Amino acid sequence: GTVRDNSGTALPNASITIRKTNRGTTTDANGSFRLGVTTGDVLVFSSIGYVSQEITIAAQTDINLTLQTDTRQLTEVAVVGTRSTVARTKTDTPAPVDVIGVRELSQTGQADLTQMINFVAPSFNSARQTISNGTDFIDPATLRGLGPDQVLVLINGKRQHSTALVNVNSTVGRGSVGTDLNAIPQGAIERVEVLRDGAAAQYGSDAIAGVINVVLKKNARSGSWVSQAGITREGDGKTLLTNLNYGFGLGKRGGFINLTLNASHRDPTNRTGSYNNTVYLTALPATRFPETPVYVPLTAAQVTLQQQDNARVAERGFDRSNMIVGNSKLTNYAGFANIGLPIGKHWELYGFGGFNQRNGLAAGFYRYPNNSRTNNLTLYPDGYLPFINTDIRDQSVVVGVRRAVQQGWNIDLSNTYGGNSIRFNVANSLNASLGNASPGDFYCGKLFFAQNTTNLTVSKGIQNLGFTKFFNMAFGAELRSDNYGIEQGEEKSWQNYNAPNTPAAQVKASGVQVFGGFRPTNEINKSRTNLGIFADIESDLTEKLLVSTALRYENYSDFGGNLSGKVAGRYKITNALAVRGGINRGFRAPSLHQRYYSAVATQFITVAGVNQQREVTTIRNDDPITQKLGIPALKPETSWSYSLGITANIRSKLLLTLDAYRIAIRDRIVISGRFSSTVPQLADLFKNTDVNEAQFFTNAIDTQTDGLDAVLTYRETIGRSPLTINAALNLNKTTIAGGAGGVRTPAQLTGFGETLLNREERGRIEVNQPRSKFILSGTYQPGPFTVRASTTRFGNISTIAPQDPLQDQTFAAKWVTDVSLGYRFGKVATLTVGANNVFNVYPDKVADPRLTNDNTVVYSRFATQFGFNGAYYFTNLAVNF
Fold it and tell me: Do 396 and 161 form a contact (C-beta atoms < 8 A)?
C-alpha cells in the first residue's frame, strides 16, 4: 500500500505495525510499503505529527491511506523515562521530555549533533572551545546549566560510553568527562529525546540533570542522501558533509537493516587580533594599557625598545596576526548500523552500533622569539605556532534479544560495548631543553576508555488490576565494567634535558611545547566493575492519576554501594490541563578518569592579573602529595531533585508545558586550583618531586540549581499548508552552598580554601553558562516550499578573575537569528539554502587588555554563549530514494 499526508504528498518513514506483535515496517521515500499479514490482523499506521489510524485486515491486498495532520497536540511517543508497555506521548509522561525529529534537527543548518540540539532545545548548551587542547575537538555539552558528566546519553535506550578525554583546561565543564554526541552521524538519527529530569534510579549513574536518548532509523527499502556545504561570512570555516542512509528488508517477517555512512570536513576559523607587544626584544609590561586601572606609562627607554622592535618586525616581515583563535580543523568519517530481525511471533533479535574516525588539528599559543625559555632561535628565528594533531576513534556495538507483547512478560537482554581513544601528536614545536637536537614533531601519548554493559530488563503490563486502570512493573539487573588508561608518549615529548645544576636563568622549558607528552609516571591501566539491580512501577491508578516509582541499588568495586529512588506523577485536572511532578534521589559515580588521570601540561592562566604560561601537573587523587594535603578519596556525587509542572492543551491547537525544578548536589567533584611549591607553607609537600604547581580532583562543594522550562507549540493548517510555531525558554541559576566559605577544606589546608577553589572556578560553575535561553522558531510549508526562521536569545554570562575583581566581566545577552528556504522537487529531492547568525552577531570582546594575550585573543576563550564565528551560509541537498 501507500501512505500520504492530507496534502496528498507521499509520507516516508511512516510506521506500520501489526498490533500485539513486534512485526512491522516503514514506508519508503514514495510512501509505499509491503508487509505480510493474515486476515484479522490489525495494522496501526503512525507518523510523528499525524493522527494514528488502525485498519483491520479482511480480504484486501492493497491499502491507500491518508494520515491527517495532528493539530491537537504534539503526539510524539517518548521512549526515554518510562518502561511502560503502553506507549506514552511526551505530554503523558510525568516528567518533561523534548522529542526532536530529524527534520527539525536538519533544518537548523548545523553540521553536527551538539549544535543541532543547541539551537532547538533551550535547556541544552554547547559552544565550541578554542586553544583548549583536547576540548578543541570534543564539544562539552550540558543540560540545565550543570556539568557535561551530569547528563546521561543513551542510543536506542542503551547507555552510551563517555569519551577518554577529561577536560582540565579553563573552559566550561572543567574537570568533567562527557559523551561525544558528534560521534553519532546525523544520517542515522530518527529523533532525539531529551528527558529534563533526574533519572539515576531508572538508568544509573550520571543522570542527575537528565537523559538524552538518540533513536536510530529503522526504515527498510528506502534511503536518503544528504549533502551540505557552508562557509562563514569571513570566508573561512568551510564545511562539507555528506550522509548516505539506506534500509534493506531482512527476512520475510518485517526485519530490517539500516545502514549509514558519513563523511565531513571542517576548515578552521580564525578571529585573532594583532599582537601588540614586542616580538624580538624584551617584552613590555602588561600595565602599559591606559584602559586598565593599573596603567603605568612606558618609560623613554621602553619607548625606544618598542621602536627598535618595530623596525626589526618590519625588516623580518613578521605577521602580527599569526595566531589561530577559533574552531579547530576536523575531518570525520563514520558508519552506523541498526538491525532488527523477528524470531517467531513475539521475539526479535536486534543490534546496532558503529565507528567514528576524527582527525583534528588545532593551534596553541604562539611562542615568540623573545621568550628564550620556550624558543630556540636557531630552529625558529621568528618563533613558532605549535599545533596539536589528534586521532580520535570511537566505536560501539550492541547485541540483544527481546520479547514484546501486550499480554504477558516482556524481556530485553542485551550487551553493549563501546570505546573511545585519543592519540595526541604535536607538530611545528620543540623541546627547548634539547637544544638544536630537538625534532619538530612528537608523539605525546594516548588516552583510552572502554565500557561493557550487560543488561536484563523484564516488564509486564496488566490492564484493570484491582482498582487500577493499568499497572506496569519492571525489574532487572545490570553489570557494567569500565577500563581507563593512559599510554606514555615518546621520551623527547616529556623529558627534561637540561644539564644538572644549570643556572635558573638559563634553564630551558622541558617537554614539547603546547602539549607535553604523557610520562611513564602517568601511564596507567585501571578497571572497575559495577553491579546494579533495579525495579520500577508505573500505574494509571485512575483515568486521571498516573504514578511512577523507581528504586535502584548499585555497587562499585572501587568505592562501594549507592541507593537511588524516584517518585513521580501526573494528574489530569481536565482533558486539556494536567499537573505533574517528581522527587528524585540521584547520584554520579566518580569516573575512572577523575580518579587516575595525571599529566603535566602548559596552561595559560591569569597570575597577578596577567595571562602567563605555567607548567601545571594534574596529580592523581591518590597521589602522595594529595594525601599529604589531606584530600580524601573521591566518592559519588549525590543529588536530590524536585520538579513541578503543568501541561495545557489550549484550543486544541496550542500546547503549553511549564516545569519548575530544583537540583541539589552534594559532594560535587571539581578540579582544584593550583597549589605552588613556591608557597612557604606548602614547600615541604613538594620536596623530592618534580612538581612545581599541582591541581587535583576533589569532592569540594555542594551546589543548588533552580530553574524553569517553558515550551509553547502552536500548529495550524492554512489551506493544505502546515504552520508550526515554537517558543521555548529555560531559566536556571546554580549557586555554591555557602559561597567561598562553602568549600570543603581539609585541616591540612586551613587558610587555603581560596586556592582549593578560587573565585574563577566558582564563577565557572555559577555564571559561565547562560542563565537564560529563549528560542522562537516558525516553519511554514506552502506547497513545495519550506520556510523556516528561528531566533535564539543567549542570556548574559560572566567570567570571574582568579584574584582581581576589577577584571571580572559580564558579557551581554545576544540574539542569534537563522533563516532558510527549501524547495521540494517532486517526491524525490529538496534543496535548502540558508544562513545561520544571519545578522553576523558576535559576543562582547574582552574588556581588560591584560587578559587578551597582548590582543591576540580578543573574544573570551574561558566562556562563550555561542562561539565567535559570525554569520554562516549553507546549502543543503536531500534526495530520497
Answer: yes
